[in-house]
Design brief:
The chain is of the alpha+beta class. It is 33% helix and 32% strand. It folds into two domains: 10-29 and 199-270, OB fold (Dihydrolipoamide Acetyltransferase, E2P), CATH 2.40.50; 58-171, no CATH class. Strands 1, 2, 4, 5, 7 and 8 form a six-stranded antiparallel sheet that branches. Strands 11-10-9-12-13 form a five-stranded antiparallel sheet. The chain has a two-stranded antiparallel sheet with strand order 3-6.
């Protein structure tokens, strides 16, 4: 194998012990970071897992933040602009059973039925009490409610809306997790691109090849340099479109330039 005259020096000589020529078109380091290489780096299974996890946590957090804000805004509208009325709590649904037991107290998390005068008639409606309700509810008690002028079934018993932070706090928790996961994927991608650009090409002996849960369309391959004296073990991913790789086969990988244990399969980037 002819060796390129670059900064890799003796390291390229060491890995050429197998006597196999380097993959066609691979070229010596430093290699170009083409748009295709940059795109493939985002799709490397480990990197893809972390940025997908980041997206999932962000979506969950955004869903609860937006939902909490909409609830808070609607609740504030009822408190500020709703028609103030005295309503009678006539029924509580407890363990799926509607109960009308005057004087009986229940947890405010149960579904309730209330009655109040509306345009000269007695209107009955069922709903959950607001999450900010304090204390127990008692069948037969009179509660002051604020009713949406356009919809008598839309009401709240709160006299002031909950702080916005209380409504969106559950959604804020996943957002830092999403940020950490994305930064982790960004750092891993940056390292992978550095390996591709500056790492030496290594002919490696396959130790194990199997499918992976994080890369259903690829194979997870554990391999070690074929050159004697190099006991490193790499874990790389090979696309399913490549030739089937079994234990004892040889494949080309790009190893970390710092002689670390990280590597990337040439077939993965070039597929």
């Amino acid at each position: 194998m002819s060796q390129p005259a670059d900064a890799l020096g003796n390291q390229e000589t060491d890995i050429a012990a197998s006597g196999e020529p380097a993959p066609t078109g691979l070229g010596p380091a430093p290699r170009e970071l083409s748009p295709r290489v940059r795109s493939k780096a985002w799709r490397e299974p480990n990197i893809r897992f972390w940025w997908l996890a980041a997206l999932a946590f962000f979506a969950i957090g955004a869903y609860f933040v937006v939902g909490g804000w909409l609830t808070w805004r609607h609740e504030s509208m009822l408190v500020e602009n709703g028609v103030s009325l005295d309503a009678t709590l006539v029924e509580v649904t407890y363990l799926s059973q509607p109960l009308r037991l005057p004087g009986k107290s229940f947890d405010p998390s149960n579904l309730v039925r209330i009655e109040f005068p509306w345009h000269g008639e007695q209107h009955t409606t069922r709903s959950m009490l607001a999450s900010g309700h304090k204390g127990f509810v008692i069948v037969g008690q009179t509660v002051q409610v604020r009713v949406n002028p356009r919809d008598p079934d839309d009401w709240t018993e709160l006299t002031e809306s909950e702080p916005l932070l209380h409504r969106i706090l559950g959604g804020l928790i996943p957002l830092p997790i999403a940020l950490v996961a994305f930064l982790g994927s960004w750092w891993m991608r940056r390292r992978l691109l550095r390996i591709w650009r500056s790492g030496p090409s290594v002919h490696a002996l396959v130790i194990e090849s199997r499918h992976s849960a994080v890369a259903l369309r690829s194979r997870r391959v554990r391999c070690t340099p074929a050159a004697e004296g190099d006991a490193r073990v790499f874990t790389v991913y090979v696309p399913s479109s490549a030739e089937r790789i079994a234990e004892g086969d040889l494949l080309w990988v790009i190893a970390a330039p710092d002689h670390g244990s990280s590597a990337i399969a040439v077939d993965w980037i070039r597929d």
